[in-house]
Each structure stands twice: as C-alpha cells, then as structure tokens.
Amino acid sequence: MSDKTAPRSSTAKTTARSPASVTAPASARSQPVPVRQRHFVFLLLNQFTFLSFAAAIEPLRIANRMSGQQLYRWSLFSESGREVTCSNGARVMVDGSLADVGRDDIVMVCGGVDVRGNTTQPVVNWLRKVARKGSVIGGLCTGAHTLAEAGLLENRRATIHWENRDGFLEEHTDTDLTKSVFVIDGNRLTAAGGTASIDLVLTMIADDHGKDLANAVADQLIYTTIRTDRDIQRLSIPTRIGVRHPRLSKVIERMEQSIEEPVSPADLAEEVGMSTRQLERLFRRYLNRSPKRYYMELRLARARNLLMQTELSVINVALACGFASPSHFSKCYRAQYGTTPYRERGAHGLEDEAGAEPGLEDDGPFDDLD
Description:
Order of helices and strands: EHEEEEHHEHEHEEEHHHHHHHHHHH
Number of helices: 16
Low-confidence stretches: 1-17, 19-32, 347-370
Largest sheet: 6 strands, mixed
Distance between the termini: 55 Å
Strand content: 5-15%
Mean pLDDT: 83
C-alpha cells in the first residue's frame, strides 16, 4: 500500500514553520528547486481507528494530485509485518514489519481501541530507537498514549481523544495534555482522532507548500474549515446539552472541572448568583434531573473511563472521582450501569473485601440518584 511513484519534475517553495518543512538556501530561492519528498511511516497498532488513519493519508494523496507532483509518499507497517485488523473489523495489508527509518521520515503511530494492550514492549523499544535519530514522531487518536509510554512526550505538550483524557492524565503526569484538536511541539505531533488528523496534515501541507495548496486539498475533501491547534475537541457545553443558558453552562463546567473534589450544590449556586432552590429548578427544567444526580452521572462516567483505560485500583478510581468509600462507589456504579466496578474491571474476589453488597454508607450531599 505504499506510494513509491517517482516524482515529476517541478519547482516548489517551502517554508519552515513545522518540523516537516524544508527551506531552500537563500542563494537558491530564485532558481528552480527540486521537490523534496516527505516520507510518512504509518505504524498501525492492532484495533487502530480507521477514520483517523484515513484522515491523515488522504490529504497526502490529494496534495500529490492537486500539485501534479510527488510531494509525499508513505509506507504502512505493523509490529509483526502481517495485516492489521482495525477497530471496525476491516483488515489492512502493510508493507512490512518494524524496521529502521530515515532521519527525515515522519513516523505516525495510529492508535485506537485498547491502546494500552496494543502498546507492546517491542513497539515502545522501536519508537525509542527512532526518537534517538531525531525523527519527527506523531500519534493519531490514542497514539499519544504509545508515545507517552515510550517517554517521548515528557515535558511536551500533547493531545489525545477526549474519551481517553482521564486515563492519560492519571498515568502520564509529566505531559502537558491539552484539549486541542492537534498539537505540534517540536518534533512531536499528536492529533486527537477522528477528523483531527485532517487538520494536522493540512497544517503540515500549508507549512511545506503554502496555504493555497492546503486550501485546495481541503476543498477536495469538502472540508470547509481548517481548524488550528487553538481549537478544542469537544462541542461547547450549550451545544452538548442542547440548552443555551449561561449560568447552567457555567455550573456544568464547574462540575466537570471538580470531579475529584466535588463542590456542594449550595456553593455551585452561590458561584452563579442563585439560591440552591433556583439551581434545583434550573436543572429540573432543562435537564430533567437534580444537580446532584447530574453531578453523580459525570463522576460515574469519569470512573468508567478510568476503569476501562487504566490499571488504577478500584479504590483509587473511587477516590479520583470524589467517593470517600469503595462500597458507596460500588453502590452508585451498579445503580447507573447495572454492574459493579469490580465486575467492569474483570477482577474477582475484591467485592467481598470492600463489601459484597455495598450499600448504606453516606457520601454527603452527592449520594442521590433520584
């Protein structure tokens, strides 16, 4: 599946904003300059997300077509050299197994489902070896986790799909994790998944060959707005909840920021200049639930992400989501999801230790699931 067609003769000017760009010497800028190809190496982890991969490779193909030149080529690799099954079940053939890459090659790690399980030690060792060469290395979707496991995001800015953000923050405190669509930090690139790969690659194309080409590629993709690294991943709170009420949005934002140390409804109401009763009516009217129930659902959703994405103990997950006791956490979790956190994790024999029928302990003002 690699693209190895010889480049056509042409001229090109480049800029040097991104790590993937090259600037011609000043003495040569007035003369025709041979186009230097950029080679992308896509490392496909098992269960990788096909959309984020396709969203990265298609702009490269279209850039070649629109420019009439072979600006980019690419190769696909897997750890074993055998075909890889992506998260939607499709099988993708690759060009080979892990091998040495050139210093100027751009390595893109394509992650997806169960990235922790699919980030093997051979992959980590290979990435460290590539990094020692000074190569540009990126992570698409959950690929940032693999880069972090290899120590390549230490003291770097990065991003990851919002669904995996909680687990990443718990395990990689040395990375400055942002909520951006994509991040370019020196020779480290990360894109949050989905269509975010388009924005990252279009930015690289613009840096390499100008905005006109990037816009032409976007037009072919029917991609009307190229997002920047200042754009965030998720929809705004009003859009997500389907309600445009400034004070309601502010309270929900405060809840989302205070999962580990929940804020009481009385304090939330005071922060937005309302009484507790007014806040209660506001939530009932627009969200058909009490503020405490909504808050509980946020905390339990965060807990579920941590259980599925990290190796934190159930007790530590409970503490990270503002629960003082494992038994109360288990009770609330079972009421929400129909199973206990221990069974969700797949552990055995732990429920008895924390209370097989967790139940009647009080967790302050946040224990209602009415």
